[in-house]
Amino acid sequence: MDDNANYFEVNKSTWNKKVAIHAQSDMYNMEAFKNGKSSLMAYELNALGNVEGKSLLHLQCHFGQDTLSWSRIGAKCVGVDLSDEGVKLAKQLNGELNLDAEFVCCNVLDTSKHISELFDIVFTSYGTIGWLPDLKPWAKMISERLKVGGTFYIVEFHPIAWMFDYIDGQPKMKYHYNKDEVIYEEYEGTYANQSSKMVSKEYGWNHGLSEVVNSLIEAGLQIDYLNEYDESPYDVFPDLIKTESGMYKMKDQLFPMIFELKATKK
């Protein structure tokens, strides 16, 4: 087994454990979601607009809340995730909510081995690319799954945010902005429930914006825009302050927390 396969297995095990904890968490607010509340945030809703009747592939979908939220507003969705527990819960929610989304359990880099259809939209959001060692095969797969003229959209935490170690609650700059070597972290709790006794064991990689952009260009996509924002829709970094818009900012904001990129398959 190569190193990456081993890293993916450890990550899969961690994500399988996270599913039950996250499904009970305030952050994922399952009761409100089941009662019709969308899990989608302003960035992605503004970027993709009216998705009614469009086919949408959601990469690294966790247990499917965003996939199902797109489904509720008329998209024909397929969600992909590494975690079999996540996919199991996603399928259960899909049935319970009487929606028509489909879910596939696989490593996101292997998506084209499991899904052959082409999509109007490929979508991924918040904490996804850091689980991938190399973005070239990821971008190639996105291009393979998009129709000509189709849209790829990512909204993601800014790479500068991943230069810090947050384990002790006090951010310390520790990692290179664009790091080829794997980063291993082991800590108690998860981003959605920091008081959980679960031990998260995680292998990740840092990808700078140039790597994101160039991998997509190389795969045949045309970049429509790249935007950076100070406000995060999630309170997942230490000591954030809630803004009037309901988003979160740092007290002393010296760098963006979010970037979004939209691209078109030529």
Automatic annotation (TrEMBL):
A GO MF term: methyltransferase activity
CDD domains in the cross-refs: AdoMet_MTases
One Pfam family in the UniProt entry: Methyltransf_11
GO BP: methylation
Residue ranges constituting the Methyltransferase type domain according to the UniProt record: 58-154
Keywords: Methyltransferase, Transferase
This protein's name: Class I SAM-dependent methyltransferase
